[in-house]
Amino acid sequence: MKKLSLFFLISILLLPVLTHAECSCDADQEDFKGSRAIPLKLAAMFSILVAGFLGVCIPTLGKWIPAIRPENINFFVIKAFAAGVILATGFIHILPDAFENLTSPCLNQSPWQDFPFAGFFAMVAAIGTLIIDTVATGYYNRNLNGKVVQELIQADEEDPSQLHVHTHATHGHAHGIASSAPQDGQDLLRRRVISQVLEMGIVVHSVIIGISLGASDSPSTIKPLVIALSFHQCFEGMGLGGCLVQAQFKIREMITMIIFFSLTLPAGIAIGIGISSVYNENSPTALIVEGILNSGAAGILIYMALVDLLAADFMNPMVQKNVCVQIKINISLLVGAGFMSLLAKWA
Question: At residue 38, does pLDDT exceed 90?
């Protein structure tokens, strides 16, 4: 419910601000106007919805496909690829757009041309993410850790394959995953915080992209974006899906987060279609709001990719002990970041 409220809050805030058409610059002239672009926008909504849903669901298939379970090396390789995608999204896709928005000639020379606001807001968002990350994790550890530990123990008892028991002649005891439940509980809480913060950054970015695409009336602009954004959403979904699997959310919570992620960009397109007749992307208010939100989303995604995804996995003992695995995940990271960077040519 909190995430749903966040989505509607962003939408409500954007609608009155972005629909004002006052601007010192002329709006871009589109190739075609009117209803010719509507079928392409509808196709984009469907394609991006399906791609995002499939992407975020792929890591969850580990329950049936042992090769991509979190304890398997292949999972680290897939997650490194997805982290590279998220990192490139922040650096190559979002941050340059933020600089373009906040240094536009449509804005006043002072203060927008005199200070690198895009970098500043990205830095503030990254620091804010760090604060939220540590404070939220500390709060959950102090107040909810016992509850999560009980959930882990109950889950282990329900799955006998996860609990190893042996006895000795003089005394008996059981140990396994349940015996390390307190530590597992702390790790699990942190992964849940990571998943929620990561989804927040992706959601803000997705809504902005969707509004921009939905407000465009140029088929020549929309056509390449359909394919590029479908890949974009699929790969971002893989990164988020990997985090959701490791966070071990209950089925209902996981389904809610998957649906929420899948719907945000298509919903943004729908909003863009609704305001396309009055939306002016070069108006000062639109440029400032988009620039600030893009900067914040870039800071969040860059922090999450480097600190919570890559650093945590690259320093994992399973990775550190195996040179071959280290080579694989580094190559996977470079391929993911490189492929996503290439998509910036079209999206």
Answer: no
The tokens for 116 are: 């690198």
148 pLDDT band (50/70/90 cuts)?
low
Averaged pLDDT for residues 159-187: 48
Matching residue, tokens 């990254």: 126
Q: Is 89 within 8 Å of 236 (Cβ atoms)? A: yes
- Write the single-letter amino acid at 75: F
Place of tokens 């140029």: 218
The three-state DSSP-derived secondary structure of 298-342 is HHHHHHHHHHHHHHHHHCCHHHHCCHHHHHHHHHHHHHHHHHHHH
pLDDT > 70: what percent of the chain?
77
The residue with tokens 């989505």 is 7
- Reading the block at residue 111, the tokens are 């203060």
Within 13 Å and on the Cβ side, how many CA atoms surround 170?
A: 0
Long-range (24+ apart) CB contacts under 8 A made by 323-328 are 325/73, 325/76, 325/77, 328/73, 328/76, 328/77
Q: Which residues pair with 167 in a beta bridge?
A: 172
How far apart are the two ends of the chain, measured CA to CA in Å? 31
Q: Can you give the pLDDT at residue 147?
A: 61
Burial class of residue 169, CB neighbours in 10 A (0-12, 13-18, 19+): exposed
Which residues on neighbouring strands pair with residue 175, listed in sequence order?
A: 164
What would the DSSP string read from start to end of 124-135? HHHHHHHHHHHH
Give the burial string for 139-148 (b: 16+ CB within 10 Å, else e).
ebeeeebeeb
Q: What is the DSSP string of 192-242?
A: HHHHHHHHHHHHHHHHHHHHHHHH---HHHHHHHHHHHHHHHHHHHHHHHH
What pTM was computed for the model?
A: 0.71
Q: Which pLDDT value is given to residue 311?
A: 87
Cβ contact 215:21 at 8 Å: no
Q: What is the pLDDT of residues 240-265, one digit of tens each?
A: 888 888 888 888 888 999 999 999 99
Instruction: Give the chain's length.
Output: 347
Which residue do the tokens 């399973």 mark?
318
